[in-house]
Every structure is written in C-alpha cells, then in structure tokens.
Fold:
Amino acid sequence: MNAETLITHLIGRGETVATAESLTAGLVCATLTEVPGSSAVVRGGLVVYATDLKVKLAGVDEDLLATQGAVHPEVAAQLAAGARERCGATWGLGLTGVAGPDGQDGVAPGTVHVGLAGPDVRTVRTLDLSGDRASVRAGAVSGAFALLGEHLA
Structure:
C-alpha cells in the first residue's frame, strides 16, 4: 500500500499514526507527510538512530538492547509501542535493521524488522532486503506501509 492510500484509510477511520525509526532515520514519517492532508493523521516520529535514544525516546528495554542488540524483532515491537504511546497515536510503526554495506552485531545487511502496535495489535515482520543502502531503506518503508495497510484494509 502506498502512502497516499494509507493516509486516505487513516482519515476515513479517524485514526492516527506515529513512527520510531532507526535505519530509516525518519524516512517513513517523511514519506507519509508528502501526502496532502497527512497532518490530519500523522502525529509525529522519533528518529532513534543511536542505540541510547531507543531507550530514552522510545522506551525500549535497555536490557533487551544489551543482550540482543539493536537489530532484533522485539526491539521493533517496542519501538512501535513507544511511538504509539509517546506520540498519542492509534498506530505505531517501529523500524530497526541494517542498511549496509556492512553487518551490525552479527546481523547481515538487508535484515529489517518492522513492528506495528495498535488497537489489539502487536506484531513484527522481518524483511530480508537486497541492494545498496538506499534500496534497503526504501524497501523498509514499503514493508512498513504494507504491514500497516494490512490492518487498515
């Protein structure tokens, strides 16, 4: 689902969205806000590129980060929940992963975890993307939109 369709669905449902983004560094939120009328439903976004900001801004469990690293499905889930709670949104999207070209903490480039938190929803999808940094980041945005779209359609 593309950004325009997501915005249309959110407006129609009277719901809002917020993001907590690591590898995409705000690209999901920026893409959503390119759509005219998005201010009615986009609450905001947290750019939590640095690991310590995942804790401070999004409320990710510090012990989880210490034991599992920043690129883990549960981190994505907690980022999504943190975005939702801290921005007062119906839906939260959380993204963490490795854009490359090198791996991180033993995680291969192209590994992306997308979390979604919403009314009675807490889920994570793991993506295995290929290409350069820009391709991986673009694929992560598409993956986040697809996951949210499945719950709005």
